[in-house]
């Protein structure tokens, strides 16, 4: 068994959520949230921001930590136990450009219910629910994104 840690972002701009569409050689296909592996010496926050920028081209900043999801999958002959640390993020514009080298074919911002239905994985849906609830709470309470 191998343990792996990734970090990612639920990026929101004007109430819409950033998603990526991945098509990996017709073996893996679906909409996902941006995330990636922690590099040596890198903080979780730095990883999350770097991965969002690399995978989507989006300049974002962290609003707050949302939580951790965990799941297991098989890669080659090994089982991988993965944990992903998620951050609520704010973007500066609707601009996005999917990273083709990682097999992302499309990216864009979607209304909450559209995003929830498009996402492929239940654990990402759960993090989206949590992040969007926090986004709405902050908006209701007029908490700025830099607090």
Please give a structural write-up.
Belongs to the Nudix hydrolase family. Pfam families: NUDIX (PF00293). This is Nudix hydrolase domain-containing protein. The chain has 147 residues and is of the alpha+beta class. It has a single domain (2-140), classed as Nucleoside Triphosphate Pyrophosphohydrolase, CATH 3.90.79. It has helices spanning 44-56, 112-118, 122-140, and strands at residues 2-13, 16-24, 28-32, 35-37, 60-75, 78-91, 104-110. Strands 1, 2, 3, 4, 5, 6 and 7 form a seven-stranded mixed β-sheet that branches. The longest helix is centred in the last third of the chain and has 19 residues, at 122-140. It is globular and about 50 Å long. The mean pLDDT is 92.
Task: Give a brief rundown of this model.
The protein is an alpha+beta fold.
Total discrete domains? 1
CATH architectural designation:
Alpha-Beta Complex
Following the backbone from N to C, one meets helices and strands in this order, namely EEEEHEEEHH
CATH superfamily: Nucleoside Triphosphate Pyrophosphohydrolase
Number of helices: 3
Largest sheet entry: 7 strands, mixed
Q: Between the first and last Cα atoms, what is the distance in angstroms?
A: 40 Å
Beta content comes to 35-45%
Task: Give the overall pLDDT as a whole number.
Answer: 92
Output the structural class. alpha+beta
Q: Rounded to an integer, what's the Rg over CA atoms?
A: 15 Å
| Name of the CATH class | Alpha Beta
User: Helix proportion of residues, in percent?
Assistant: 25-40%
| Global geometry | globular
Q: Point out poorly predicted stretches.
A: none
